[in-house]
Each structure stands twice: as C-alpha cells, then as structure tokens.
Write a structure and sequence with these properties.
Helix 10 packs antiparallel against helix 11. The protein has a single domain, classed as Rossmann fold. With 484 residues, it is an alpha/beta fold. 44% of the residues are buried.
Length: 484
C-alpha cells in the first residue's frame, strides 16, 4: 500500500510539474499601476534587428499576473495595448478588473511593445511637464523641429519598430514564458497587433477579443475627421432627443459651426486659471485647437456628456470649461504614449497608402478638418520608414473564434471597421455596445461575455441581448450635473 501511495504521489507531482510553464525569463514580484493585484515582472532581451541577431539588443518589459487557481488553465490571456505607443504595463492595470473571472483560472500577461513603456521607448514629449498653459494650447502642437530633435536623440533605429516585428517579439515572449497557446485581448491599435498575431502565429493562438477594431483597411489618420464627425453627429442627435439637453442647448450643431468659423477668423484670447496649479494664465484658442480638444473628449462617453455645455459656454465667450476639460489631454497623451513608436508604425503601415487629396475629401464638412492628418503626413515625410511584408495590408483571414466589440459612439474606430474585419473572420461575432465610446470591455455584461468565450473556447451561446439596457450617460445641462 505504501509503495502504491508513493507511486500515486509521484505521478501527481509529475503531472503538476508538466502543467506548469517552463520559463526562461526571470520574474520578480512587482506592482502594476492602477491595480492592487500582485504581479511578477521581468524582461526578455531580443535583437532590435531580427535579421541581424548579433546587433543591438533591447529589453522587452513584461508582467504576469498569476492565476488565482492552484492549477491554472494552460492558455493565458495576453493583453495588447493601444496607441500605437501605449505601455501595457502602465495603461492596462485599471482594466484588469474586467478580466476578474478569467483571472481566477488564467494568467494575465502584459508586454510593453518594443518602443513603448520600459521596452526601449521612443519617447517624444509634446511639452515638458512644467510648460506654461499657453504653450499647451499652442496651435503648433506637432511641431516638426521637436520630432526631428527626438529622432536625433534615439539610440534606436525607428524603422525596426513596426507591428509585424512586435508580434515576433510577442511570440518569443510566449515561448520564453513556457506557454504553447495563448488567448488574445487587444484594444484599439492592439486589435491590429492581435490580428497580425492571428495571421503570422496562428498555431499558438486560441481565441481573440478585439475591442475598438482597427483592421488593416483602416488607414490612419485619413479617417480621423470623418469618424470623429460621425460621433459628433450622434451626440447632436441624442442631445436633441433628450428634453433637458434640447431645451438648454437648442440648435447645437449650427452654434458649433458658427463658433469654429469665428475662431478660424479670430482666435479667442481668454484669461483662465491653470487647472493644474491654479495660476492665472492668458490662453489663445485657435480653431483647430478647439476642434482637436473636442475630439479628445468624445473618446469617453461620461466625459462627452459635457460637450454641449462646453460648446454653449464657448459660444458665449467663456472658454474656461474647455480649458479645464482638455488642458491635460495632449500632455497626458505624450506621457502615456511613445509618440516616436506611433510614427514608426503609422509612417510605415498607413501613411504610404494615404493621398493628400483623400485627406481633404474625407475631412470636408467636418468639425475636425484636415489639419491633424496633414500634420501627421508632414512628420512622416522625414520619419525613417520601416518596411512591411508583402500583403501586409490584405485583410486578415482566420478561423479562430474572435469576439469583435465596438462602442456605438466611438470617434476613432466606429462599428463599421469591425464589420470590415468580420468579412474575413468566419468564426467571429460583432457586438455593438450602446452608449459607449472608445473601449467597451468594462461596460455592462461585456466582461461576462469575454469570460464565456475564453472559458469555452468558442462563441456558442454568446449574444448581445444583455447589452440592450445600456445608454449614453445623460448630458450635463449645468456643471452641477445632469437634469434630475
């Protein structure tokens, strides 16, 4: 009996050791920003130029949030951040709560893509943190000289920081952590990265969740103005249908058009208090600066509920609410997104397929206008351009189970782009989440739907009926809040 018991225990230990991933990267306890979940962090060294593996090496920062179960499922969930240029380790912590059910049985893995976060970042801050408020609202935010200076300071070859190379990195991380197959979650640009992984490394992908879908058919920034206008049109429509908003802000679209026309002719000079330090400041509001700010506010539905009130006050000459709402947008963006990586991706993968006349056509009649896209094109004219594989822009085809999520109000990746991706993903389901802007994974019953997909490894029984009660948050008619 003792011999039999010993054999059984030995067999059990052998099975447990076989199930545990065999890792060739050292991990140490760490904490991720925005979450209290314990994590283990480490770094994997890879060649910057995979065609010349003996050349410059870069470290990829990664974090594993271990599953709560004593015997986790073998397929972890890898979370791919957006941007391009966002740090997964810095930005996705607050989102981990949406994966609480999955975390019980699966490791959650975050990797700072090369060029982001702590993975040899290609940073290029728009303004220093101590910059005066007036500088943050200057009309030359994407100043050419600033980006030329950033290029000169990089100890890197920006041509080697494209999505395909990053997904080769990701697959090496998968192998180094000892996983055979992985599940994928991608948000915004992370959906493009996940699609490329599905195409290039299909044998190691199990299921995918794409939130705010950016397929290869989407060519940024050519569609910024058109897709932003769609989101603004929905806001105007919903305001007109909500009695309190319609009464407080009649004819909102015409007033915004008139305001933008006036700012184009005569930029507004306003005296406000800096919302960060409270110091009085004089700020000049240009037409494009005002439009860029409104577009940024539209990303998040709760924030967007302030837009009618902001436009109303600005039309009356009071730009303080606009300044308060947007003062941190550009600096916050450049602090959390490596702008050099953004341009390394877009200048190689998108801008070569965008014509100047197309930018003008797609921006005609929009509140945003063509300037932002033109600024991107101007920077890409001198940014080192990496190569992309033949067929890179072709739609990604995969028979893996894929859940596509779109926010109804999304100003940058509206539902039509998920529909484009779905055409070549025969085993996919597209859900449009009502009342939501850019990013739907934490809304309503979406976490339960994502968990069901990953747990069962298929889309069977998943539908969007539980999403129907969701609505846009009520509009603020005063700064005291929505009408009761």
């Amino acid at each position: 009996m003792r011999i039999l018991l010993a054999l059984l225990l030995a067999a059990a230990c052998t099975r447990g050791e076989a199930a545990a991933p065999r890792r060739r990267v050292a991990l140490a306890p760490c904490r991720l920003k925005g979450t209290g979940l314990p994590a283990q962090c480490g770094a994997l060294r890879v060649p910057e130029d995979r065609a010349h593996p003996r050349g410059r090496q870069i470290d990829l920062k990664l974090a594993v949030v271990p599953a709560l179960a004593r015997a986790p499922a073998p397929d972890p969930l890898f979370l791919l951040a957006g941007g391009p240029g966002q740090s997964a380790l810095e930005a996705l912590g607050p989102l981990l709560g949406a994966f609480e059910r999955l975390h019980r049985t699966r490791d959650l893995v975050l990797v700072d893509q090369r060029g982001t976060g702590s993975s040899h970042p290609l940073r290029c801050d728009l303004h220093p943190p101590e910059a005066p408020l007036a500088e943050k609202f200057a009309s030359d935010g994407l100043e050419e000289e600033r980006f030329r200076k950033c290029l000169q300071g990089y100890d890197a070859d920006p041509r080697l920081y494209t999505t395909t190379i990053a997904m080769e990195d990701l697959d090496e991380v998968r192998e180094a952590l000892g996983y055979d197959r992985i599940d994928l979650w991608g948000g915004s640009y992370g959906t493009r990265a996940a699609l490329i992984y599905l195409r290039e490394h299909a044998a190691h992908a199990r299921v995918a969740i794409l939130d705010g879908v950016a397929p290869l058919a989407l060519r940024l920034p050519a569609t910024f103005a058109r897709d932003g206008q769609r989101s603004m049109d929905l806001l105007f429509k919903h305001c007109a249908e909500e009695k309190a908003c319609a009464t407080a802000f009649p004819d909102l679209q015409r007033r915004l058009t008139d305001l933008l026309r006036e700012l184009q002719a005569h930029p507004a000079r306003t005296h406000v208090n800096d919302p960060v330090n409270g110091q009085p400041a004089e700020v000049v509001i240009h037409r494009d600066v005002f439009a860029f700010g409104l577009r940024g506010i539209l990303y998040q539905q709760d924030f967007a509920s302030l837009v009618p009130l902001i436009v109303d006050r600005a039309a009356r000459g009071d730009f303080a609410p606009f300044v308060a709402a947007t003062a941190g947008l550009d600096q916050g963006f450049s602090r959390t997104v490596s702008l050099g990586l953004l341009f390394s991706v877009l200048c190689a993968e998108d801008m070569p397929f965008v014509q100047p006349e197309e930018i003008d056509e797609l921006s005609r009649g929009t509140f945003l206008g063509p300037q932002l896209a033109r600024d991107f094109m101007r920077i890409c004219s001198f940014w080192p351009r990496g190569s992309i594989p033949p067929g890179f822009r072709e739609p990604v085809r995969s028979d893996k189970p894929v859940l596509l999520l779109s926010g109804e109000l999304d100003p940058v990746t509206p539902p039509e782009w998920a529909e484009q991706a779905r055409k070549t993903l025969p085993n996919s389901l597209h859900l449009v989440v009502p009342g939501v802007g850019h990013g739907a994974s934490a809304e309503g019953c979406v976490p339960q739907l994502m968990a069901k997909l990953v747990e069962q490894g298929s889309l069977a029984g998943i539908d969007g009926n539980c999403l129907r009660p969701l609505r846009r948050p009520p509009f603020f008619v005063t700064f005291a809040g929505p009408s009761p």
